[in-house]
Give the backbone structure.
Amino acid sequence: MTFDSSNPMRTVLVGLNSPGYQSLALGYLRAYAQADSRLAGRVAFQTLDLTVEVDPWWVAYRVLALDPDLVAISMTCWNARSAHEFCRIVKQARPQTLIVMGGPEVGPIAEDVLRAHREVDMVVRGEGEQTFSELLYAITRGRRVEHVEGVSARMVDGSIVSAPDRALIADLDSIPSPYLTGVMSPVDGGAYIETYRGCPHNCGYCFEGKGYARIRRFSETRVAQEIDLLASTSGVHSFSFIDPVFNLTPERLRWLSERLAPHAARGMRLHTVEVDIERIDDEQAGLLVAAGVASVETGPQSIGAAALAECKRGFDKERFMNGVAALKRAGIVVECDLIVGLPGDTVEDFFSGIEFCMDLDPGIIQTSTLHVLPGTDLYERAGELGLRFDPEPPHEIVSTRTIGYNDLRRAEVRAVFLQRQYRARI
Amino acid sequence: MLKFQTVRVGSGGPIPCVHCGGSAEPVSHIPAAEVIEGIREAAAQKDPTGFNLILGGTDAFGHQELPALVNAAVLEGVARLAVETDGGALGVGGNAGGALHAGVRHVRVTVIDLNRAVSGVTAWIEAAAGVDAHVVATAVIPVCAHNVAALSQSVAALAEAGVAGITLDATDATPSAAVSAHIVAACDTGTVNGVWVDVSGSEGLLPASHLLHRLEEGAAR
């Protein structure tokens, strides 16, 4: 089937987000595709930014009401179960609708997803903007989708075929800004800005560093325009930066701080930003305050030597402590994150980590359970490391060589208690 | 982990179990000035996490000068302020809301009567729901031969009321396989209900599989 201006392909992009947030990924996809002149008049876009709490049957209801030819979903470990459920319903109700998935939950295991979920027709692997546009182009012209780089697809005979990977987009500014193009309207507290892709670290449990092997940046001009737009939007008093390390370099931090300071002086605030705390000193803390940062999120994730080594993660205790102290002097709340279930960690290591963080009195201590995410080093080395985890998303750790199933559950419960006890202060 | 310093506001109270016998020690309260002096001394010995204080020794709500004591702790820069109670006073006359407003963030409920404890915790959690404050309720269950078989039910009831952590004080429990089994079951009941249960005076009562539930040396609730 082909599509043209008299019969545009009705394309519904579905985000199942955390409450209050919008899907920046879908914004990028749509902004890029709408700027592709080859698709003009042939594709009609509609975005449904819903929350992950919405019942999948009601998501399907909203989607089916739009009579879509194609449904595209941004998949994370958190929304995958709901997304698969609503897609199954959509496929049953309207079998001719094409279901396309993308995102970190499905990209690294595209063929597995297609085998396990018969309602899924195609998976976009890796960075999605260009691949999704090329896929839409192929579909609207009746061309073979299995030839589109970065796509895995189910064939008519049931076989699954993957085209070669697509190279990363060299110039991120070639992706139109969803905000500057009007594809997304910023909402208070729910808008994100991304200033670069990739991560200087390569932590074994995280997709960020592995998915984008090198750091690529949006231009300062582009970022400045987005900041100014969000900060000047009526009713927007706060927004977030999605960057894995806000203080990527001293120069970048200084530049961001100077761009954000005039808005911060008028009361605009940033949601919690992630920082490399071991590089924070009084000067950087001051730049964060000037930028409107009230709280930061950081590790250490673990202080156990074995876990740090298995996860390829550095940890300098003194520098970490100095970083927390500098932020506290500047009046910034620090959220220290710890993960239970990392390979090599014992229960004692985990609770030593909590004790270490408590002694720093950072403000917030947040513990979470390891999720062995597709595409990460731990996912690929799970057998070697003795990690047993739920194959279904969100891929929670079941047991490790050093902590059994029951003690993991006990550690989770005790950690939550300790967090609550710590947080209950005047 | 978090260390709380206990400043006694008095002593005495009902016996934990009427079936175990013994006589109740009469309740007496320490004069406010003396308690406040104790608060000042405690404030000088801060933990890295700040000045964490329990007003205890007896049900703190029985002390007529409790508001002044709480105020003194606040003026001394207390970070986390806990009060000890059997729960009864929390459900009476706006006590829960008043304590919260004054700066109390933790209540430690000694379970003498389960219904009273549950009612108190419920009142505390409801009071906190109306304000922007993080609070915690913990419970201490003195374990004896007469309540050991019902420990799991007690833990479940307290969990439903909103308790975050429970200490089973097994100091006076006579060790046996049956007692051990009930304590293990209570720990597991807590875990599956998202409430941490630890055990004090547990020498020999916890099997190797449950040693994580042993209360740390020197820890206080």
